[in-house]
Amino acid sequence: MTTFVFRNHTVEPFLGDDAMTYSGYDDISIVPRDVERYIWFYQVPVNTDSTQLAEELASYRGKLDLVLAEADDHKPFIVFSLVDLYPVKFTGEDVAVADAIMEFNRYVASLAATRPNVKWVDFSEFTRQYELDALVNWKYYLMSQTLLSPKLAHDFKNWWQRIETQLALQRKKCLVLDMDNTLWGGVLGEDGVDGIRLGGDYPGKAFSYWQRALLQLEKNGVILTVCSKNNEADVIEAWQHNPNMVLKREHFSAVRINWQDKVTNLRELAAELNIGLDSMVFIDDNPTERELVRQLLPQVAVPDFPEKPYQLMPFFKQLVENYFRIYTVTSEDRAKTEQYQANALRKADEARFPDMESYLYSLDMELDIVPADEHNLPRIAQMTQKTNQFNLTTHRYTEADVQRFLDNGWRVYCLGVRDRFGDSGITATVFLEPVDDITVNVDSLLLSCRILGKGIEEAFFKTVLNLLRLDGYRKLVAQYLPTVKNGQTADFYDRMGLTCVSTDSDGSKHYEMELREVFEIKNYYNIRVL
Amino acid sequence: MNMEERVLEIMREVFEMEAVTTDVSQKNCARWDSLHHLSLASELEEAFDIDLEPEEIAEMTDFSRVIDMLKSKI
Fold first, then answer.
1. A418: closest CA among A353, A365, A475, A355?
2. Contact predicate A259/A266, CB 8 Å
3. Residues of A with CB below 8 A from B45's CB?
4. B54: chain A residues, CB-CB within 8 Å
5. How far is the C-alpha of A496 from the C-alpha of A457, rounded, in Å?
6. Please, are residues A54 and A93 in contact by the beta-carbon 8 Å criterion?
7. What pLDDT sits at residue A333?
8. CB distance A484–B30 less than 8 Å?
C-alpha cells in the first residue's frame, strides 16, 4: 500500500520507509493521485513568538482544504490532530496557540464527520503517555527537524500499528447484547428481579455505568439488540419493575430472548434489521457462546468480555474506539457541525485559499539574492557539503574552494528566504563560472529541502538568469549529474526551458540556453538583489 | 554478542537491510542517508546507554568510525 504523507517535520523515523512517500517540509504543492491513501501529520512548530505561531497554525486549515480538494476523495485521508510539544506561555492568559490548536482539531473532527474518506487520529493519545520533557529530544530536533524524540520511535510504531488496525476496521452498526452477567450481575432466573446486581454499591454500580454508557451509544445511532437465554416474562418484569434498569425495551430495536442457539438468533436479527452480519458486534460474558459465534459466524465481531465488573468502563471505551467511533452522524450532530462551520468560516476566512496561487500570495515571501561574502561563505560551503536532494551537480566544496572560485571571477549567489511565519535563513546557492565573455557555466545549483514546494527554486534561478543577461551574458551551459538522491532535479533544467544537447551513459545531461529575453517571475515573490 | 555484531544488527534493523558488512559506509550505502543516520545514532545511544554529541554523530561516517566512537565512550 502506498501512502503519501504531508508533514512539516521529520517523521520518517516514526512512520517508516515502507511504501511511504513524504512531501517536502510544509510542502503542499504536490498532491499525487496515484497513491492508496494519504496521511496529514503536521506537528506544532517550535516558535516562541506565540502570535506568529498561532497565525501559522491557523493557516494549516486552509492548506489542508487545498490538499483535500486536490486529493482523490475515494482514498482514505488520515489526519493527525495537533499537539503542542513545546508550550511556552509568558502569561497565564497567553492562550492564542492553545486556541489555534483546538480550532484546528475541532475542524478536523468535523471534516471526519462529514467526509467519508477522512479519518482523524488523536495524536494526544500517544503523547499523553509521556512527560513533556521526554517528548522532544532537542539534540535531534536541532540536527534533523525531528520534533518528536526518535527514542520514542519503537513505541510510536507499536501505537501506530494499533491505530491502523482500528482504522481498517469497518464501522459497525449494531451491538448484540447478552443479559445475565452482561447487562447486570447475576442470573435473573435465579436471583429474581430485585436480586440481580444493578445500581447501588459495587458491583451493581459498575453495571449501572455500563448501561448508561450503552444508552449513549444508542442515542448516537448505534442499534442495540438483545440475544439472551432467559424466560422472556422474567425480562419483561425486570424492565418494568427494576427501578435501576437504564436500558428498557424501547431502547432495543429487536430482541431474541429464548433458548434457541445464538447463531440462529444472530442470523434472524440480521435479517429482521436488514443489516449484514459483518456490521454486528456480539457481547456475551460466556466464552463458550463467544467461541461458537466466532467459529460459525466469522463475520461478526466478537470482543472478549471483561472478567471483572470494574473493567466495564475501559471495555466500553475500547468498544467505541474499535467499532463505533465516527460511525454515523445524527441530524443533531450535523446541525451542530454546520453551526460550528459557519462560525469558523467567518473567523478563519483569511486561512482559506481558493487555489495554490492565493496560498503562495498569502505567505508574503521575501527572497534576498545575496552575492557571496565573508559572512555567508561558511554557510554556502556547508550547503554544498550537505544538500543531497535538490542539487543538480552535487559538487562538494570547502570554504577555501569557494574563495578560490571568487578570486577567479566566478559569481556565487546565495538566497535568503523569509515569509510571514519566519525566517528560513540562507537556503539556496548557485555557482556561476564564466567560460568566455558571453557564456556562463552553472557549476552548482542547490536548494535546501526545507523551502521546496513554493516555486522558490524557479524564481531564484530565473532571477539569476535575468541578472546574467543584464550583465551582458548571452549563453548558459549547465549539467545535471545524477546521484542516488537527486532524482527530483532530473528534469529541472528541462522545465526551466534549457535544451538538453547530450546525455551520457551514466545519465548525466548537458544543457544549453540562449539568454535573450527577460524571464517573468510571479509577483508573489518579493525579490531583492543585494 | 560482541560490539561489532551488535552494531551490525542495529544497522540491519535501522537501514532495513538483509545484510550489512563491516565495510559499510555512508558513501557506499544508499540506505545510510542523513535520516537513517540519526535513527542509527539514537539506536546506538539506547543500546549502549551512551550520549553522543552532534559533532560525534556527524563523524560516524563508516562502520569502523562507529566502532571507534563507541569504544571511546564505553
1. A365
2. no
3. 151
4. 139, 142-143
5. 10
6. no
7. 45
8. yes
Domains of chain A: 3-168 (3.40.50.1110), 174-324 (3.40.50.1000), 363-529 (3.40.630.30)
> Which positions in chain A touch B57 (Cβ < 8 Å)?
143
- What is the model's pTM? 0.66
| Nearest-neighbour CA in chain A from B53: distance (Å) | 8
**Region A451-470 average pLDDT:** 92
ipTM of predicted assembly, 2 dp: 0.87
CB < 8 Å from B in window 15-34 of A: 17-18
Asked if A436 reaches chain B (Cβ–Cβ under 8 Å), the answer is no
Interface contact flag, A388 B33, Cβ < 8 Å: yes
Contact check, Cβ <8 Å, A151/B42: yes
Alpha carbon of A4: minimum distance to chain B alpha carbons (Å)? 18
Query: Which residues of B fall within a CB distance of 8 Å from A484?
Result: 30
Which residues constitute the domain of residue B16? Answer: 3-73
Chain B closest-CA separation from residue A394 CA (Å): 13
Kindly state the percentage of chain A with pLDDT values over 90: 67
Give the model confidence (pLDDT) of A415-428 as tens digits: 999 988 788 889 99
Q: How many domains does the structure of chain B reveal?
A: 1
* Cβ contact A377:A403 at 8 Å: yes
Taking the CA atoms of A503, A509, A514 and A519 in sequence, report the sign of the dihedral they define.
positive
**What's the confidence (pLDDT) of residue A332?**
45
Residue (of A63, A15, A5) closest to A356 by Cα position: A63
Closest-CA residue of chain B to A10: B35
pLDDT at A502 over 90: yes
Contact A475, A515 (CB under 8 A): yes
What 3-state DSSP class applies to A312? Answer: helix
pLDDT at residue A347 in the model: 45
Give the CATH number, domain containing residue B35. Answer: 1.10.1200.10
- Residue A128 CA to residue A109 CA, distance in Å, equals 19
